[in-house]
Design a protein that fits this description.
Blueprint (H helix, E strand, L loop, with lengths): L5 E6 L2 E6 L7 E3 L2 H15 L2 E5 L5 E6 L10
Parallel strand pairs: 1-4
Antiparallel strand pairs: 1-2, 2-3, 4-5
Length: 74
Amino acid sequence: MSSNNQHVVPHKSGWAVKGEGNQKASSVHSTQKSAIDTARSISKNQGSELFIHGKNGQIRARDSHGKDPYPPKG
């Protein structure tokens, strides 16, 4: 799986989309839904994972767009 996972995180101007390990946001949105839509598009294109954080910063949801094994191992 790609290491450039996308994160939707709280930002002083609303919600930000950040690539994993990046200091700067890729984009900033006024609503979380808009940020999620953008991050989902990026993660689908890159075959990476999407992590959606709540207002408290904790991960509240995730979505995988990588090459997951089917059937899952374990």
